[in-house]
Write a structure and sequence with these properties.
3% helix; 411 residues; four-stranded antiparallel sheet; globular
């Protein structure tokens, strides 16, 4: 169904000239690398100028509520909007999903937990309902069941609301997934037919990926059937269905270690089955990889709808379908940018608003909420997912602070 791209022997194209010869390299061509990656697997090809950069370590514990309230005073929003703490005490909170009766389910990163947030007597209580899972970042709710994706398994928990204190044993509904932890954390998006879009990231920064990854699959959780809908995707941890067309759009984190300002992260749009979005041959739609271009031209691949900026780390995104915000926000995309680490001066750490038509033309972006970065390289929060609430406000999860915020509008 999908064509395999040939590996050509032409000289590699290089936008950084002689620097390409100085790149650090791993032999990622052997399965032993993917199965047992070195501790610094995320380095891949390190330029001299970027040496010494590494992901920052987050706080050991969630930010206390009083401190969260003070921190949010620094967040800048358009006139009429306000931000407040919705829930706190959720270590490494990631994707969110609404269940029945107002229950909010939240995945996590290294914390291994899944949480439930419920309104009890006017106060929101956070309960850890699952523990010990392998990076259960992605959650979804469908037909009375909670779905959790944990690296190499899609799990279903039936009737969770009745069992929050003692969750039932999970049903494995799909496990045709590699076990690589590196870039193996995932995100779940349910379409109108009950199928789920699931991204599969490569187990390194840059390299020729195993055939089972660098793709997006469309999975039927009822039958375990799946199809590959996109190739050439590096690391996607966010997406949504366009309410105008039913098309799948997704954010993508581009490779590291070229420079502070290259390449740009992306917003992509799948318009036909089997599109190739460039990785590892071409980045941001117009930048051949200095080592892995292998004679390919960027014109062979699907370009992004929008370049979001270098190392801003776009994660969760949502089309706005509510009525609380002003009319001009309808069908806009809100993107949570987790923020830089592979850059000497961080950027991102904010929420972007994207205005775009259903075809992906005339796309433009503007900052909607900012202020989680202080100075050049300090965070007090890192937004990572967005979810629309029933009243039309937006919820934002923050894995750095272990919190969820609510952004609302009032004239």
């Amino acid at each position: 169904m999908l064509a395999t791209l040939p590996l050509l022997s032409a000289p590699a194209l290089s936008p950084v000239g002689a620097k390409a010869a100085e790149l650090k390299s791993y032999d990622s061509s052997k399965p032993s690398f993917w199965q047992h990656p070195p501790p610094d697997w995320f380095l891949g090809d390190e330029t001299e100028a970027q040496k010494g950069l590494a992901p920052p370590s987050g706080p050991a514990l969630p930010t206390p509520p009083d401190e969260l309230q003070a921190d949010l005073k620094r967040i800048k929003l358009p006139p009429g909007f306000r931000i407040e703490v919705y829930a706190s005490g959720l270590p490494e909170a990631r994707q969110m999903a609404w269940g029945k009766d107002g229950t909010l389910y939240v995945g996590s990163f290294n914390a291994t937990n899944v949480y439930a947030v419920k309104d009890v007597g006017g106060k929101r209580e956070v309960k850890t309902i699952l523990k010990g899972l392998n990076m259960p970042t992605g959650v979804a709710y469908l037909d009375g069941a909670l779905y959790v994706v944990a690296i190499d398994k899609l799990l279903r928990y039936d009737n969770p609301e009745a069992n929050l204190d003692h969750m039932p044993a999970p049903v494995v509904v799909y496990d045709d997934m590699p076990h690589y932890v590196a870039h193996g954390w995932k995100y779940l998006v349910v379409d109108k037919n009950g199928w789920m879009y699931i991204p599969f990231g490569p187990p390194f920064n840059i390299g020729i990926p195993p055939t089972s990854v660098s793709q997006i699959r469309h999975v039927d959780p009822k039958t375990g059937l799946a199809e590959i809908v996109a190739l050439g995707v590096r690391n996607s941890v966010g997406g949504d269905i366009d309410p105008r067309t039913g098309d799948y759009w997704f954010t993508e984190n581009a490779r590291d270690w070229i420079s502070d300002d290259l390449p740009s992260d992306k917003l992509n749009h799948i318009t036909r089955l089997g599109q190739h979005f460039g990785y590892p041959y071409c980045h941001q739609g117009d930048l051949p990889d200095p080592k892995f271009a292998r004679g390919h031209k960027c014109s062979e691949f699907t370009p992004p709808v929008l370049k979001l900026g270098a190392h801003v780390a776009p994660l969760g995104m949502k089309f706005y379908t509510g009525s609380q915000f002003p009319a001009q926000y309808k069908d806009n995309i809100f993107i949570a940018e987790h923020g830089s680490w592979n850059r000497h001066k961080y950027q991102g750490g904010r929420i972007e608003r994207v205005i775009v038509d259903p075809s992906g033309k005339s796309a433009r972006q503007e900052v909607f909420a900012s202020g989680w970065i202080t100075g050049d390289r300090d965070y007090f929060g890192r937004p990572d997912d967005i979810l629309q609430a029933p009243d039309g406000s937006l919820l934002v999860s923050d894995d750095w602070a272990g919190a969820i915020y609510r952004i609302s509008y009032k004239k």
